[in-house]
Amino acid sequence: MKPRIGEPPGGTLVPQTNPNLSKFDHLVVLMLENRSFDNLLGYLYENDKPQQFVGCSDKVFRGVSGEDFSNPDANKAEVSVAKAPFETPADMCNPSPDPGEGYKHVNNQIYGRSDVPLDIAELRDHPAPMNGFVLDFINAIKAQEGWDGVEPTYAQYRVIMNCFTPEAVPVLSGLAKAYAVSDEWFCSVPSQTFCNRSFFHSGQSHGNVYNSNYVKWQLNDNRTIFDLISAKRGPSSDWRIYWYPQDLVCMTRIIHRALEDAKYDRNLRELDPELHSFKEDCRKGDLAAYTFVQPRLIFNHNDMHPPVSLNPFVDSSVLAGELLIHEVYEAVSTGPKWQRTLLVIIFDEHGGCYDHWPPPLGATPPVENPNYELEEGFRFDRFGVRVPAVFVSPYVAPGTVIRAGGKVPFDHTSMIKTICQRWELEGLTDRDRAAPDFGDVLSLPLDQPRRDRPTFQPREYEPIPEPEAHGGLLSALQKDIFGLAALKKKVERPQLGKIGEALDWFRRSV
Length: 510
Known about the structure:
Elements: E1 26-32, H1 37-41, E2 52-54, E3 70-72, E4 78-80, E5 82-83, H2 103-111, H3 133-142, H4 154-157, E6 162-163, H5 170-178, E7 180-182, E8 185-186, H6 193-202, H7 214-218, H8 225-233, E9 239-243, H9 251-254, E10 268-270, H10 276-284, E11 290-293, H11 318-333, E12 341-347, E13 389-392, E14 400-402, E15 410-411, H12 413-423, H13 430-434, H14 466-469, H15 476-488, H16 499-509
Parallel strand pairs: 1-11, 1-12, 2-14, 5-6, 7-14, 8-15, 9-10, 9-11
Antiparallel strand pairs: 3-4, 7-13, 12-13
């Protein structure tokens, strides 16, 4: 068997900058969609306290329990944070309809204005007040197709301030408490999906802050962490992307031009609804050094993305994502490579869901003098909103809360930094080189890994049957995925409204 990257032929680990990184050989990442830290984990430690803090200047969990956070509505009445109802299927699809997630929406949410100064020197004395979520959600609701200008009711817009309790999401919250969570992990960009996922694997977004500039995304040919790994070990070794072919297109691949090379075809593995290929690889101990699991994004999606609207044909339940987290954890933790594996569960962006903690300023731009246009003039020198980040390994102590500890917080490029530190790769951009790694989360001694394996029971969930699900309206993200794929395949995309129409068109034309 060939040694893994970073290992000489004898298999002895090359010394790392952070010695804790030698405690794993396999890194598995599941990245879900569009939920803020407070929305899913704000009440995580309402009734007890973490057992240890790592890299933290203070020993206070940064959630919403016991706090009086609020945002004003259009009448200047304060809408307070509250526990989200979770008893019914509809409850678990909130916030609905889909909040705003683009660059200007996020500016409105965190600063209460869309025209945030581009010079962060003008913002240093004015921390983001995080008080525009309600007003921006009201505007997002009114902009929904078919809303026809009707003013949203209080009951309709107050859901943006609701945060789920651990009872609502027993798997994610169970793993967060049984292992570790960061309450200070930020998106790389204060905007939406493509740019944040691009930062996660390449440390930049080619200057993009929106999904919808497909021509510009087609030019996103910068190197990725996958390219660095392959350069060291060969194009078919040591990394994999698992994705659902029901989506017809792998989003991770189409947003990175470099990954479209045919030499990487073997690195992509298809998932059926039961994840048989991933589970079998885990069972056999056939894990790559780096594994990225992409949720189902189009048909009966299980990515936790909020819905276009609640209707009989759309089911955007958080519970679908809970089941996916449970299956990935069970597969990894019952396999023979478990003791040498680190599982990270994370979200690409907050998606307009409320969070109370202001994103830091002073992020390092990826490139000092970029040769591409900066969309909206944004300099990539401030971070996006917090998202959940959960770390699971036999070397993670129960009840851990981790922060970076230094002046630079965790953001998505911390994943690149950790991979590069672990396997002695050179890095990709100035942003990921400046980022902290998260090796300190593996705080247990090398010779004392945990022998327990906590288990969690996901709540019951049944997806909508396929014929009915085809009648669901496409979300903006789903339209953007098909739009970029159509441009890359040089076919004209018609106006697509429903999921079934989009899938049929794609099969015929692409």
